[in-house]
Design a protein that fits this description.
The structure holds two protein chains of two kinds. By secondary structure, chain A is mostly beta strands. Helix content of chain A is about 0%, strand content about 50%. In chain A, the strands form two sheets. In chain A, strands 2, 4, 5, 6, 9, 10 and 11 form a seven-stranded mixed beta sheet that branches. Classes of the chains: A mainly beta, B mainly beta.
Chain lengths: ~110, ~120
């Protein structure tokens, strides 16, 4: 299953609403997770089951979608949100990741 | 506190082999599926291999199938990845990751170990 993320990069201002999309090449129900990765660090789980916020993750992050189209939204971008974001499908093996979206702060 | 600590990353020549280890602590290791994920320099994340909590089920990416074997020792809380016939394109940081109980995502990751493949 291929995952296509868009955009591949974006630049936004603090306080902006940011949306990242992830499209699957076939239906994956809600078996989708989102991760945040900062340079030199391991990824961090933000969202699982497409829309469930992982414990400890700020509520400005949210996820939606099912089937083939998914979105990750940051409602009010903060400086610490500068990172690369990846989606991952867990519907079947081999598990796959999207290509990533690099979010920069203007 | 959950901890995953990888080791074994080295410089190896093309065609060579190595074994990565991931020492787990702070949780009941035998209750969780464990995975290896890699990241080539400047590139995205790539699933490599997975093993069920009891070791009976294993899964591999097409890119490594036949060259890699995942295993675990639940008595020693350790995950392994035996890699052979290494290629330049296998050069990456290798992370071990714990799959959440619901199978919904990796809730804990190690810091990664670097495998360099070069002559």
């Amino acid at each position: 299953i291929q995952l296509t993320q868009s955009p591949s990069s974006l630049s936004a201002s603090v306080g902006d609403r940011v949306t990242i999309t992830c499209r699957a090449s076939q239906g994956i129900s809600s078996y989708l997770a989102w991760y945040q990765q900062k340079p030199g660090k391991a990824p961090k789980l933000l969202i699982y089951a497409a829309s469930t916020l992982q414990s400890g993750v700020p509520s400005r992050f949210s996820g939606s979608g099912s089937g083939t189209d998914f979105t990750l939204t940051i409602s009010s971008l903060q400086p610490e949100d500068s990172a690369t974001y990846y989606c991952q499908q867990l519907n079947n093996y081999p598990l796959t990741f999207g290509g990533g979206t690099k979010v920069e702060i203007k | 506190e959950v901890q995953l600590v990888e080791s074994g990353g080295v410089l190896v020549q093309p065609g060579g082999s190595l074994r990565l280890s991931c020492a787990a602590s702070g949780f009941t290791f035998s209750n969780y599926g464990m995975h290896w994920v890699r990241q080539a320099p400047g590139k995205g994340l790539e699933f490599v291999s997975a093993i069920s909590n009891n070791g009976r089920s294993t899964y591999y990416a097409n890119s490594v199938k036949g060259r890699v074997t995942i295993s675990r020792d639940n008595s020693k809380n350790t995950l392994f990845l035996q890699m052979g016939s290494l290629r330049v394109e296998d050069m990456a940081v290798y992370f071990c990751a714990r799959m959440g109980i619901g199978g919904d995502g990796y809730d804990y990751w190690g810091q990664g170990t670097l495998v360099t493949v070069s002559s």
